[in-house]
Amino acid sequence: MRYPDGGGLTAEQRTRREEVRMRAADLFEEDVKVPCIARELRVSEKSVYQWRRVWASGGREALRSQGPPGYDCRLGPDLQAKLAVWLEEGPAAHGWRDDQVWTAARVRTLIGRKFHLSYSVSGVTRLLHRMGFSVQMPARPAAERDEDAITAWREATWQEVKPSGRRPARISASRTKRA
């Protein structure tokens, strides 16, 4: 499933955040105390102290929004579009014929093969999320699923191996305490 936006703050939310920082700059110029600023702007004192340090070293311009945070993605929009097309083709089209599941490790391998870039598995997960892909559950149960065998296992084997449900009694492991 793809989400309409890639996550993070919208331009409107970044603008609102910048307005709050500019109001803080006005209050810094009026020499208002940090706790009062935090209360008025409904932010943490830690944020106000940080903004004041930035303001003191660079003025109002230093408090302006610098766009979305984080690193620039190594796969630009055109490469992400290519990757999305390949993902839509399915794993079998790229050599994984045993099952039709894209895993982060497989996407990592695909990126390495096609773009000669190395990503970590967690980096691929973040990339896919930014691209609008989400974790999916299978649409239907596996064809190999045997409901009778599952029921038999639950009734026989599970009853033998499951914990009793009673917590162990409290005991002392101290050698100095008398029994």
Molecular structure report:
Residues 1-7 have low confidence and may be disordered. The chain is 53% helix and 0% strand. It has helices spanning 11-29, 34-41, 45-62, 77-89, 104-115, 121-131, 147-155, 157-161. Helix 5 (104-115) packs across helix 6. It has 179 residues and is mainly alpha-helical.
**β content, as a range?**
under 5%
What sort of overall outline do the alpha carbons produce when their principal axes are compared? flat
Would you list the SSEs in sequence order as H and E?
HHHHHHHH
Please outline the major beta sheet: none
- DSSP summary, beta strand count: 0
- State the distance separating the first and last CA atoms: 62 Å
Write a brief structural summary:
53% of the residues lie in helices and 0% in strands. The chain is mostly helical.
Key phrases:
single chain, 179 residues, mainly alpha, 0% strand, disordered N terminus
Topology of helices and strands:
Elements: H1 11-29, H2 34-41, H3 45-62, H4 77-89, H5 104-115, H6 121-131, H7 147-155, H8 157-161
Helix pairs in contact: 1-3, 2-3, 5-6
